[in-house]
């Protein structure tokens, strides 16, 4: 045994120089970005106002059909939060001629997949099948949109499932942080609803939302994949020529102002969750004037990639890789028509919550004051362009990209200009955006306040800390308290 250990030690020692040399090697430089080539969007408007958009790509025998409705949580009253998502989800729960089970079986028989749902800006129903079954798939989609039954028993079941999910999630620090931020920092309401709002929704609410917003002049029917514009338009005419509702869709809420300043932190809110296993540490700021169609969209994307858009981003490096304080840290923008919601996030031990909050603040300051070198900027841009190109390789990803363009009234050729727009973003643009729009937000921490209270006061001596017990939380109230 001693001889074996000695032999292994000698072998390892002999390899040490080469291992050290290998460890010090720099990773290969990113390759030259490949251009993204998307076939032109072919568009027709039917007499009833329905827009039909087709991108023909014949590389695989698949087609995704997506019906976009330009109304989501932005079109629902705050007291009925969750209505848009509930309405969209109910589309697959039964029609005048098909039960929920029969819908699922019909799609399964076609070898396809179906989805429906709603976000803040829009609602959708989407189905993907092989190209020889498009007509049958479109007949199902048409039935869901034009003849939903909204059966009471299915609605009660869906509400019960939604409430169960909310009840569970409202015990999770990260969910509570985003839930509270929607009202406290971002001046919105949770798109998935609250316990009280979902409980209060009824069939008449769903029927009214559907009647008001699911109208042809507020919709885009997207075909992406192995189908011609001529065939797609003919199928659309056959399926939706009788769709003639003309109710005016609900309007999008106007964006409220936000406080900007040189100090990155305006307020700190702590949701005290005693005995929580970990703490969620987040930063939120509503960026007014920079919506999805704004020219600053691309600088914002590159900024986010540098700051928190992946494993090699600054936040993840400082919080996870360098210090081991979290399994992951990142940032993101939530895009709206006239503004965007910026956030950073990490989950950590309660003992290190204040330290993580300070690290987030430091990185927000650094990205607005220090240059982003080419050795960092080029790889972070490559992450964006690589992900973008990969997503467009699938028919569903292509349909989602078109849905984004139509939802925000963006020129259809923007897909082919994405790579060049990203690569043209400069370091100066990133710093200017960060300095102008990121400061003035809120740190929200959800965790056991007794553990990090003193450290938080020490690290942020000049920032007011508001504390709300998790059991006293009620985001429907102006002060967030029951």
The end-to-end distance, rounded to whole angstroms, is: 69 Å
User: Measured on Cα atoms, how large is the radius of gyration?
Assistant: 25 Å
CATH topology of the largest domain: Cytochrome Bc1 Complex, Chain A, domain 1
Shape: globular
* The CATH architecture of the largest domain: 2-Layer Sandwich
Order of secondary-structure elements: HEEEHHEEHHHHHEHEEHHEEHHHHHEHE
Q: Tell me, what is the CATH class of the largest domain? A: Alpha Beta
How many beta-strand segments? 12
Low-confidence stretches: 1-24, 252-261
Mean pLDDT: 91
Can you count the helices? Answer: 17
Structural class: alpha+beta
In terms of DSSP E residues, the strand content is 15-25%
Number of spatially distinct domains: 2
Give the strand order, joined by hyphens, for the main sheet. 1-2-6-3-5-4
Main sheet: strands, sense, barrel: 6 strands, mixed
The share of residues in helices is 40-55%
Looking at CATH, the homologous superfamily of the largest domain is: Metalloenzyme, LuxS/M16 peptidase-like
Topology, element by element:
Elements: H1 2-23, E1 42-45, E2 51-56, E3 62-69, H2 83-90, H3 100-109, E4 113-118, E5 123-130, H4 134-146, H5 152-169, H6 173-184, H7 195-200, H8 203-213, E6 219-225, H9 229-240, E7 265-272, E8 279-288, H10 297-308, H11 314-321, E9 329-335, E10 339-348, H12 353-369, H13 374-391, H14 395-407, H15 418-423, H16 427-437, E11 441-447, H17 449-459, E12 465-469
Parallel strand pairs: 2-6, 7-11, 7-12
Antiparallel strand pairs: 1-2, 3-5, 3-6, 4-5, 8-10, 8-11, 9-10
